[in-house]
Amino acid sequence: MTTNTTVKLGTGLTYNAASDALIFGSTGSETVKIFDGVTVTTDSSVERVEFSRASSEYTFKATNTGLQVSYSGKVVANVVSGEKLAFSNGSAVVASTFDAATATGAITLNGTAVSTTDGKLTALIPNNATGEASSVAQGTQTPVSGAYTIVPSTTSVTEGSTITFTVTAATAQATATTLHYQVIGSLVGTDLGLTTLGDTVVLPANATTVTFTVTPTNDGIVEGF
Question: Can you give the residue range of the structural domain that contains 204?
Fold first, then answer.
Protein backbone atom coordinates (compact mmCIF):
# COMPACT_ATOMS: atom_id res chain seq x y z
CA MET A 1 0.00 0.00 0.00
CA THR A 2 1.53 3.35 -1.04
CA THR A 3 0.89 6.89 0.20
CA ASN A 4 1.44 10.53 -0.82
CA THR A 5 2.26 13.68 1.13
CA THR A 6 -0.99 15.62 1.03
CA VAL A 7 -1.72 19.33 1.46
CA LYS A 8 -5.22 20.66 2.13
CA LEU A 9 -5.51 24.39 1.52
CA GLY A 10 -7.83 26.63 3.48
CA THR A 11 -10.24 28.87 1.57
CA GLY A 12 -8.55 31.50 -0.58
CA LEU A 13 -4.97 30.56 0.31
CA THR A 14 -1.80 30.49 -1.78
CA TYR A 15 0.65 27.62 -1.27
CA ASN A 16 4.34 27.71 -2.21
CA ALA A 17 5.18 24.14 -3.28
CA ALA A 18 8.88 23.49 -2.72
CA SER A 19 8.46 19.72 -2.25
CA ASP A 20 6.41 16.98 -3.93
CA ALA A 21 2.76 17.03 -2.90
CA LEU A 22 -0.82 16.10 -3.68
CA ILE A 23 -2.76 19.34 -3.15
CA PHE A 24 -6.47 19.87 -2.57
CA GLY A 25 -8.20 23.24 -2.58
CA SER A 26 -11.36 24.40 -0.84
CA THR A 27 -14.52 26.22 -1.81
CA GLY A 28 -12.78 29.56 -2.39
CA SER A 29 -10.09 30.51 -4.89
CA GLU A 30 -6.79 28.78 -4.12
CA THR A 31 -3.41 29.16 -5.82
CA VAL A 32 -0.42 26.82 -5.92
CA LYS A 33 3.03 28.18 -6.81
CA ILE A 34 5.45 25.55 -8.11
CA PHE A 35 9.18 25.81 -7.56
CA ASP A 36 11.86 23.92 -9.49
CA GLY A 37 12.59 20.28 -8.73
CA VAL A 38 9.18 19.24 -7.41
CA THR A 39 6.16 17.36 -8.74
CA VAL A 40 2.72 18.59 -7.74
CA THR A 41 -0.71 17.08 -8.41
CA THR A 42 -3.73 19.31 -7.87
CA ASP A 43 -7.45 18.63 -7.82
CA SER A 44 -10.16 20.65 -9.55
CA SER A 45 -10.77 22.81 -6.46
CA VAL A 46 -7.39 24.52 -6.97
CA GLU A 47 -8.17 27.36 -9.38
CA ARG A 48 -4.69 28.62 -10.31
CA VAL A 49 -1.28 26.96 -10.66
CA GLU A 50 1.75 29.20 -11.15
CA PHE A 51 5.09 28.32 -12.74
CA SER A 52 8.33 30.29 -12.58
CA ARG A 53 9.21 30.22 -16.28
CA ALA A 54 7.74 31.07 -19.68
CA SER A 55 5.32 28.56 -21.23
CA SER A 56 7.82 27.94 -24.05
CA GLU A 57 10.23 26.34 -21.56
CA TYR A 58 7.78 23.59 -20.57
CA THR A 59 6.47 20.53 -22.39
CA PHE A 60 2.89 19.33 -22.18
CA LYS A 61 1.14 15.97 -22.47
CA ALA A 62 -2.57 15.14 -22.49
CA THR A 63 -3.61 12.26 -20.23
CA ASN A 64 -6.98 10.62 -19.61
CA THR A 65 -7.22 12.56 -16.33
CA GLY A 66 -5.98 15.97 -17.47
CA LEU A 67 -2.72 17.66 -18.38
CA GLN A 68 0.87 16.80 -17.48
CA VAL A 69 3.45 19.62 -17.43
CA SER A 70 7.20 18.91 -17.52
CA TYR A 71 10.42 20.91 -17.33
CA SER A 72 13.81 19.55 -18.41
CA GLY A 73 12.36 16.04 -18.67
CA LYS A 74 10.84 16.03 -15.17
CA VAL A 75 7.10 16.10 -14.55
CA VAL A 76 6.37 19.18 -12.43
CA ALA A 77 2.56 19.26 -12.43
CA ASN A 78 -0.49 17.12 -13.04
CA VAL A 79 -3.56 19.34 -13.44
CA VAL A 80 -7.17 18.93 -14.49
CA SER A 81 -9.73 20.69 -16.64
CA GLY A 82 -10.82 24.12 -15.45
CA GLU A 83 -7.55 25.08 -13.80
CA LYS A 84 -5.67 28.19 -14.91
CA LEU A 85 -1.92 27.81 -15.46
CA ALA A 86 0.12 30.99 -15.06
CA PHE A 87 3.58 31.32 -16.60
CA SER A 88 6.00 34.25 -16.56
CA ASN A 89 4.63 35.29 -19.98
CA GLY A 90 0.92 34.95 -19.22
CA SER A 91 -1.81 32.44 -18.38
CA ALA A 92 -3.68 29.62 -20.10
CA VAL A 93 -6.79 27.64 -19.08
CA VAL A 94 -6.97 23.84 -19.23
CA ALA A 95 -10.12 22.47 -20.86
CA SER A 96 -11.19 18.94 -21.68
CA THR A 97 -13.63 17.17 -23.97
CA PHE A 98 -11.92 13.84 -23.34
CA ASP A 99 -14.13 10.80 -22.71
CA ALA A 100 -12.15 8.06 -20.97
CA ALA A 101 -14.76 5.43 -21.86
CA THR A 102 -14.41 5.98 -25.59
CA ALA A 103 -10.89 7.47 -25.60
CA THR A 104 -12.14 10.35 -27.74
CA GLY A 105 -11.97 14.12 -27.34
CA ALA A 106 -9.08 16.38 -26.46
CA ILE A 107 -7.27 18.31 -23.77
CA THR A 108 -6.65 21.95 -24.71
CA LEU A 109 -4.69 24.84 -23.26
CA ASN A 110 -6.15 28.21 -24.25
CA GLY A 111 -7.82 26.38 -27.11
CA THR A 112 -4.61 24.76 -28.35
CA ALA A 113 -4.93 20.96 -28.53
CA VAL A 114 -2.38 19.05 -26.45
CA SER A 115 -0.91 15.84 -27.83
CA THR A 116 -0.76 12.58 -25.89
CA THR A 117 2.97 12.67 -26.69
CA ASP A 118 5.04 14.99 -24.50
CA GLY A 119 6.16 18.10 -26.38
CA LYS A 120 6.23 21.90 -26.55
CA LEU A 121 3.15 23.91 -27.51
CA THR A 122 4.56 26.32 -30.07
CA ALA A 123 1.07 27.51 -31.04
CA LEU A 124 0.07 28.40 -27.47
CA ILE A 125 -0.70 32.10 -26.98
CA PRO A 126 -0.86 32.92 -23.26
CA ASN A 127 -3.11 35.67 -21.95
CA ASN A 128 -0.66 38.41 -20.92
CA ALA A 129 -3.21 40.88 -19.54
CA THR A 130 -2.42 42.58 -16.25
CA GLY A 131 -2.45 40.11 -13.37
CA GLU A 132 -2.43 37.01 -15.54
CA ALA A 133 1.33 36.24 -15.46
CA SER A 134 2.92 34.20 -12.70
CA SER A 135 4.62 35.91 -9.77
CA VAL A 136 6.70 32.89 -8.74
CA ALA A 137 10.34 33.52 -7.89
CA GLN A 138 12.73 30.70 -7.01
CA GLY A 139 13.25 30.14 -3.29
CA THR A 140 12.09 28.08 -0.33
CA GLN A 141 8.57 27.31 0.75
CA THR A 142 6.91 29.97 2.90
CA PRO A 143 4.33 28.59 5.35
CA VAL A 144 0.90 30.22 5.22
CA SER A 145 -1.77 30.29 7.89
CA GLY A 146 -4.45 27.69 7.29
CA ALA A 147 -2.35 25.28 5.21
CA TYR A 148 -1.90 21.73 6.47
CA THR A 149 0.36 18.88 5.42
CA ILE A 150 -0.20 15.19 6.08
CA VAL A 151 2.88 12.96 6.17
CA PRO A 152 2.79 9.17 6.66
CA SER A 153 5.24 7.33 8.92
CA THR A 154 6.07 5.04 5.99
CA THR A 155 5.39 4.95 2.25
CA SER A 156 4.11 1.37 2.39
CA VAL A 157 2.54 -0.83 5.03
CA THR A 158 1.64 -4.49 5.41
CA GLU A 159 -2.10 -4.96 5.68
CA GLY A 160 -3.03 -5.63 9.28
CA SER A 161 -0.27 -3.30 10.53
CA THR A 162 -0.75 0.30 11.62
CA ILE A 163 0.42 3.42 9.83
CA THR A 164 0.67 6.79 11.58
CA PHE A 165 -0.08 10.09 9.86
CA THR A 166 1.23 13.39 11.19
CA VAL A 167 -0.80 16.48 10.39
CA THR A 168 1.20 19.72 10.57
CA ALA A 169 -0.31 23.20 10.48
CA ALA A 170 1.70 26.08 9.04
CA THR A 171 0.70 28.18 12.06
CA ALA A 172 -0.93 27.42 15.40
CA GLN A 173 -4.49 28.57 15.99
CA ALA A 174 -5.86 30.00 19.25
CA THR A 175 -8.72 27.50 19.32
CA ALA A 176 -8.98 23.79 18.58
CA THR A 177 -9.46 23.04 14.89
CA THR A 178 -11.41 20.08 13.52
CA LEU A 179 -9.83 18.85 10.30
CA HIS A 180 -11.64 16.61 7.85
CA TYR A 181 -9.55 14.18 5.82
CA GLN A 182 -10.48 11.91 2.95
CA VAL A 183 -8.64 8.88 1.60
CA ILE A 184 -8.46 8.48 -2.17
CA GLY A 185 -7.19 5.60 -4.27
CA SER A 186 -8.17 1.99 -4.94
CA LEU A 187 -9.80 1.52 -1.54
CA VAL A 188 -13.20 1.25 0.06
CA GLY A 189 -14.06 2.24 3.60
CA THR A 190 -13.86 -1.28 5.00
CA ASP A 191 -10.21 -1.50 3.87
CA LEU A 192 -9.38 0.95 6.67
CA GLY A 193 -12.01 -0.07 9.18
CA LEU A 194 -14.08 3.01 8.34
CA THR A 195 -17.68 3.27 7.23
CA THR A 196 -16.57 5.86 4.64
CA LEU A 197 -13.20 6.91 3.24
CA GLY A 198 -12.96 9.90 5.54
CA ASP A 199 -12.88 10.96 9.15
CA THR A 200 -11.88 13.89 11.35
CA VAL A 201 -8.95 14.72 13.58
CA VAL A 202 -8.79 17.59 16.09
CA LEU A 203 -5.75 19.85 16.23
CA PRO A 204 -5.52 21.22 19.78
CA ALA A 205 -5.43 24.95 20.43
CA ASN A 206 -1.96 26.50 20.07
CA ALA A 207 -0.56 23.29 18.59
CA THR A 208 0.93 22.76 15.15
CA THR A 209 0.89 18.93 14.97
CA VAL A 210 -1.47 16.08 15.66
CA THR A 211 -1.31 12.40 14.67
CA PHE A 212 -3.84 9.75 13.77
CA THR A 213 -3.49 6.09 12.83
CA VAL A 214 -5.19 3.71 10.43
CA THR A 215 -4.91 -0.06 10.18
CA PRO A 216 -5.55 -1.45 6.67
CA THR A 217 -7.66 -4.60 6.66
CA ASN A 218 -5.71 -7.71 5.71
CA ASP A 219 -7.67 -8.80 2.63
CA GLY A 220 -4.71 -9.96 0.55
CA ILE A 221 -5.26 -7.30 -2.12
CA VAL A 222 -2.55 -4.75 -3.04
CA GLU A 223 -4.11 -1.26 -2.92
CA GLY A 224 -2.97 2.35 -2.84
CA PHE A 225 -4.12 5.62 -1.31
Answer: 148-214
